[in-house]
Task: inverse folding
């Protein structure tokens, strides 16, 4: 949703602004893998007809697609979250040597404070390590502008350019101006340039020299580039800052002199020296690592930084103010009140629930992965025992079994979603089969990349634009990897889950269970006729079987003293369960568990 | 910077906080304010406690509300009105939907929903305005308009002409439910002024 105002500016999120920027910049090809907080960029971009967009199976593939598009002469964008750049690091480091023909911009969306991530790495370090310029906007309007500038810069320097945003740009809405749309470029056409496209050692050694020349040129350019700006003010305190940290500095110390670095790599050394010399005290304010601070100190410049400002988590105005000038910290705040927590939870009707319920009742170590199903860790299921990174569940289970030795295959089960399996689980499965693992793998196939908000993947049968696509046959794929025992399971049939999972876990050979049921948030699932389950309270004996599923639609109603008898129940019954018919999504897991005929499926309304 | 106003939206994922905060932001933009809003997507959304932070003024830099500086909290659920107490101060106004949504530990009988939870605000001299948005929405003919009823209650406390809100609702809600939404908005306005 955007609000259109008379001066042609709109109000939109950073991600929407970046998509608009890519459209205005004439991007030919954009590829990405969903990952919070980057996901919506590709979704918004897919609405522009002139830009080819796609979901790649992982970030490495996405970046390689972008490099190919650039070699063919088109402008190309690859989007990913911070950890996605780890996956895409291999092509990134060599694309630094090759450059391209059309500009290549690699968008990394970092997640300080780990709102929806497994770590909070600072991807500015990649710019330094891969010898690639990095631009870092502060708000949605700049995000759009900097994306366009990144293409110009990259084409001028024959270099990929990194654009780093963080959660508080991606998911912040602000006023953004619309710009001119570049006229269509010449139709891309592949040309042969082996000296920069074929990175054999002989050519790579020459490009290696070029990379240094290019970065020297970029450093020079950084001295005068208008994205590195000095905002004059009181010289008592001078601030060097970039990204969202700039916003917090402006609010905490509106009177101060600020050097705002829109390009956080490479750094304009002379500009920094002159700035440092012009102020009484120098403060470097940045989120996460002391990236700028380390470089500035290496220039021999004395400054404050992480000695005062936290290196962990997000900053905000209050933290910046308090770190630098404790006396200006606000008056005492209200202390939080202790309340029952409200953690995120699997949705009512989530197909993962039946599997985790089953696993929670088995003495197995559950080697987990990244997705909605990571929530299987939370009470009352508590059925996930490790999560490290995308695709790790399968090799980690293999490693556990190999460490424990013969006969331990029934101690470990790995679980992975369909999208994560395609992302980076397949090679792990090939390894498990090749090296003789017998630990069962459960693929939680809900037909979609769910956690990031319902993006199709190669197993979904549709593209980013909702057009039909060849559907990856997971069962045939597992068999092709050499798995002899592949079983398809309906995760909503909980007794069947128990039977099948037990059988396969005991089996002394590699087996894969594909638990197939669509995510309840899929549009086609939401459009079903509303049928819900309800409790026949008369039949409920208060056994709590259904309660232990942890479904948000099922709640426990305790009896008051003497109420059980008065209502005709056994005196010992402590209460009964109740299904919220508004929340119920008709999965039937509770009914499949109930032995007392107390849960019934209603009639279609 | 004191000219910047802060509105904290809090509630449970799936309650329509997004639309409510969008409508509010659109109204503030229309009357000429600079507006920034911050929200969190992904894992945090799945039925958990969620917030949206809205800041407006002549020029807004930071998208985040500092602790102790929320002028208004628009809470969609009673416990979620109290959870973000450190963001409030004694001059804050809390508009709260008087609805209970049981968190998992309460639903499964492992914890108890605190009784009279809003007393935690009242005893700290925070102004609390309770709004029964569900009843207002039901009366309006569509229970899913509860979030628009809450926008109505919030609108009373903003220096924005009611017509601005009405025209924005007209543009933004599905046309077949326009009548119900307008009724819910009006009902919310009435309740929010008390």
Result:
């Amino acid at each position: 949703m955007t609000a259109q105002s008379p001066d042609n500016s709109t109000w939109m999120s950073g991600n929407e602004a970046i998509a608009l920027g890519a459209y205005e910049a004439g991007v030919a090809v954009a590829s990405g893998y969903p990952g919070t907080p980057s996901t919506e960029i590709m979704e918004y971009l897919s609405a522009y007809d002139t830009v080819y967009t796609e979901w790649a199976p992982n970030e490495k593939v996405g970046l390689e697609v972008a490099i190919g598009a650039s070699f063919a002469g088109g402008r190309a964008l690859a989007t990913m979250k911070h950890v996605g750049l780890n996956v895409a690091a291999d092509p990134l480091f060599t694309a630094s040597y090759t450059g391209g023909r059309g500009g290549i911009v690699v968008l990394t969306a970092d997640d300080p404070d780990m709102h929806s991530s497994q770590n909070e790495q600072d991807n500015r370090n990649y710019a330094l390590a891969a010898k690639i310029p990095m631009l870092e906007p502060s708000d949605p309007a700049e995000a759009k502008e900097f994306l366009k500038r990144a293409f110009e810069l990259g084409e001028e320097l024959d270099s990929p350019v990194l654009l780093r945003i963080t959660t508080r740009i991606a998911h912040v809405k602000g006023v953004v101006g619309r710009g001119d749309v570049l006229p269509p470029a010449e139709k891309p056409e592949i040309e042969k340039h082996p000296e920069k496209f074929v990175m054999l050692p002989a050519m790579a050694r020459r490009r290696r020299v070029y990379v240094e020349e290019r970065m020297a040129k970029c450093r020079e350019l950084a001295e005068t580039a208008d994205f590195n700006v000095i905002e004059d003010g009181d010289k008592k305190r001078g601030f060097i800052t970039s990204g969202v940290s700039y916003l917090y500095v402006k609010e905490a110390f509106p009177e101060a002199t600020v050097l705002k670095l829109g390009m956080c790599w490479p750094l304009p050394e002379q500009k920094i020296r002159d700035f440092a010399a012009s102020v009484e005290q120098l403060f470097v304010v940045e989120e996460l690592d002391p990236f700028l601070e380390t470089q500035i100190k290496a220039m021999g410049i004395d400054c404050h930084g992480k000695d005062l400002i936290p290196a962990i988590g997000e900053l905000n105005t209050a933290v910046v103010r308090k770190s630098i000038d404790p006396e200006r910290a606000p008056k005492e705040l209200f202390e939080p009140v202790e309340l029952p927590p409200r953690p995120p939870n699997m949705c009512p009707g989530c197909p993962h629930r039946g599997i985790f319920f089953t696993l929670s009742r088995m003495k197995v170590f559950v080697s987990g992965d990244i997705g909605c199903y990571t929530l299987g860790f939370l009470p009352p299921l508590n059925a996930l025992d490790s999560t490290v990174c995308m695709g790790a569940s399968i090799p980690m289970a293999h490693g556990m079994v190999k460490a424990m030795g013969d006969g331990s295959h029934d101690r470990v089960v790995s679980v992975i979603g369909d999208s994560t399996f395609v992302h980076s689980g397949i090679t792990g499965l090939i390894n498990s089969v090749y090296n003789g693992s017998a630990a069962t793998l459960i693929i939680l196939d809900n037909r979609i990349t769910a956690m990031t908000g319902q993006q199709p993947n190669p197993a979904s049968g549709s593209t980013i634009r909702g057009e039909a696509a060849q559907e990856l046959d997971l069962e045939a794929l597992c068999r092709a990897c050499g798995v002899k025992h592949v079983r398809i399971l309906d995760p909503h049939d909980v007794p069947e889950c128990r039977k099948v999972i037990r059988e396969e876990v005991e089996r002394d050979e590699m087996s894969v269970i594909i638990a197939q049921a669509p995510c309840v948030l899929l549009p086609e699932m939401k459009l079903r006729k509303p049928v819900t389950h309800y409790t026949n309270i008369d039949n409920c004996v208060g056994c709590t079987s259904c309660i232990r599923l942890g479904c948000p639609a099922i709640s426990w109603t305790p009896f008051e003293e003497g109420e059980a008898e008065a209502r005709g129940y056994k005196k010992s019954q402590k209460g009964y369960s109740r299904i919220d018919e508004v929340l119920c999504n008709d999965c039937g897991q509770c009914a499949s568990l109930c032995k007392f005929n107390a849960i019934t499926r209603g009639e279609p309304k | 910077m004191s000219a910047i106003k802060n509105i904290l939206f809090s509630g449970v994922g799936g309650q329509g906080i997004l639309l409510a905060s969008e409508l509010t932001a659109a109204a503030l933009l229309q009357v000429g304010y600079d507006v920034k809003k911050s929200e969190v997507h992904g894992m945090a959304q799945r039925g958990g406690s969620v917030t949206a932070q809205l800041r407006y003024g002549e020029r807004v830099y930071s998208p985040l509300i500092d602790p102790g500086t929320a002028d208004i909290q628009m809470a969609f659920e009673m416990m979620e009105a109290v959870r973000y107490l450190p963001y409030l101060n004694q001059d804050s106004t809390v508009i709260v939907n008087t609805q209970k949504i049981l968190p998992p530990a309460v639903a499964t009988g492992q914890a108890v929903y605190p009784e009279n939870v809003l007393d935690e605000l009242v005893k700290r001299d925070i102004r609390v305005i309770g709004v029964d948005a569900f009843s207002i929405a039901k009366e309006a003919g569509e229970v899913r308009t509860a979030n628009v009823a809450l926008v109505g209650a919030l609108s009373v406390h903003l220096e924005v002409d009611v017509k601005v809100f009405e025209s924005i609702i007209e543009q933004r809600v599905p046309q077949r439910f326009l009548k119900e939404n307008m009724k819910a908005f009006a009902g919310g306005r009435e309740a929010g002024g008390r």
Observations:
- Confidence is low (pLDDT under 50) at residues 1-6 of chain A.
- Chain A has four domains: 3-224, 228-328, 352-526, 533-601.
